[in-house]
Specification:
The protein has four helices and no strands. It is an all-alpha fold.
Length: 86
Protein backbone atom coordinates (compact mmCIF):
# COMPACT_ATOMS: atom_id res chain seq x y z
CA UNK A 1 0.00 0.00 0.00
CA UNK A 2 1.38 3.39 -0.99
CA UNK A 3 0.57 6.45 1.08
CA UNK A 4 1.31 9.87 -0.33
CA UNK A 5 1.83 12.79 1.98
CA UNK A 6 0.04 16.01 1.33
CA UNK A 7 2.20 19.06 0.76
CA UNK A 8 1.59 21.33 3.71
CA UNK A 9 1.47 25.00 2.83
CA UNK A 10 2.40 27.68 5.35
CA UNK A 11 -0.55 29.83 6.53
CA UNK A 12 0.97 32.94 4.94
CA UNK A 13 1.16 31.22 1.58
CA UNK A 14 -2.46 30.10 1.82
CA UNK A 15 -3.67 33.60 2.75
CA UNK A 16 -1.51 35.24 0.09
CA UNK A 17 -2.94 33.08 -2.67
CA UNK A 18 -6.45 33.51 -1.22
CA UNK A 19 -6.09 37.29 -1.35
CA UNK A 20 -4.75 37.18 -4.90
CA UNK A 21 -7.63 34.96 -6.03
CA UNK A 22 -10.29 37.11 -4.34
CA UNK A 23 -8.96 40.63 -4.80
CA UNK A 24 -11.49 41.48 -7.52
CA UNK A 25 -14.49 40.60 -5.33
CA UNK A 26 -16.87 43.54 -5.92
CA UNK A 27 -18.08 43.60 -2.32
CA UNK A 28 -14.56 43.41 -0.88
CA UNK A 29 -15.91 41.23 1.93
CA UNK A 30 -14.37 37.97 0.73
CA UNK A 31 -10.85 39.35 0.37
CA UNK A 32 -10.80 41.45 3.56
CA UNK A 33 -9.91 38.66 6.04
CA UNK A 34 -7.12 37.48 3.74
CA UNK A 35 -5.81 41.03 3.36
CA UNK A 36 -5.64 41.56 7.13
CA UNK A 37 -3.82 38.26 7.64
CA UNK A 38 -1.39 38.94 4.79
CA UNK A 39 -0.69 42.44 6.08
CA UNK A 40 0.08 40.99 9.52
CA UNK A 41 2.34 38.25 8.07
CA UNK A 42 4.11 40.33 5.40
CA UNK A 43 4.27 43.78 6.94
CA UNK A 44 4.46 43.17 10.69
CA UNK A 45 6.26 39.92 11.50
CA UNK A 46 7.76 39.56 14.95
CA UNK A 47 11.53 39.18 15.14
CA UNK A 48 11.12 35.45 15.86
CA UNK A 49 8.78 35.01 12.87
CA UNK A 50 11.17 36.89 10.60
CA UNK A 51 14.15 34.84 11.78
CA UNK A 52 12.19 31.61 11.30
CA UNK A 53 11.47 32.25 7.61
CA UNK A 54 14.45 34.37 6.50
CA UNK A 55 16.93 31.52 6.08
CA UNK A 56 14.65 29.08 4.24
CA UNK A 57 13.29 31.93 2.09
CA UNK A 58 16.80 32.82 0.93
CA UNK A 59 17.78 29.17 0.52
CA UNK A 60 14.75 28.41 -1.66
CA UNK A 61 14.41 31.80 -3.37
CA UNK A 62 14.41 30.24 -6.85
CA UNK A 63 11.81 27.60 -6.01
CA UNK A 64 8.49 28.38 -7.68
CA UNK A 65 6.39 28.59 -4.47
CA UNK A 66 8.76 31.16 -2.96
CA UNK A 67 9.28 33.08 -6.21
CA UNK A 68 5.52 33.02 -6.85
CA UNK A 69 4.79 34.37 -3.38
CA UNK A 70 7.31 37.15 -4.00
CA UNK A 71 5.52 38.11 -7.21
CA UNK A 72 2.16 38.22 -5.45
CA UNK A 73 3.57 40.40 -2.65
CA UNK A 74 5.12 42.76 -5.21
CA UNK A 75 1.83 42.95 -7.12
CA UNK A 76 -0.40 43.50 -4.08
CA UNK A 77 1.94 45.56 -1.87
CA UNK A 78 4.58 46.94 -4.25
CA UNK A 79 3.79 50.64 -4.03
CA UNK A 80 1.34 53.08 -2.45
CA UNK A 81 -1.22 52.61 -5.21
CA UNK A 82 -1.25 48.79 -4.84
CA UNK A 83 -4.49 47.20 -3.75
CA UNK A 84 -2.95 45.76 -0.58
CA UNK A 85 -1.77 49.21 0.53
CA UNK A 86 -4.89 51.25 -0.17
Amino acid sequence: MKIEAMRVRPPGDVRLHGLRDRRDDPSGLVAAPHALDVDRIVAVPSRDEYDLVAGPSREHANAEPVAGAGRIVADLFGDLSSIGVR
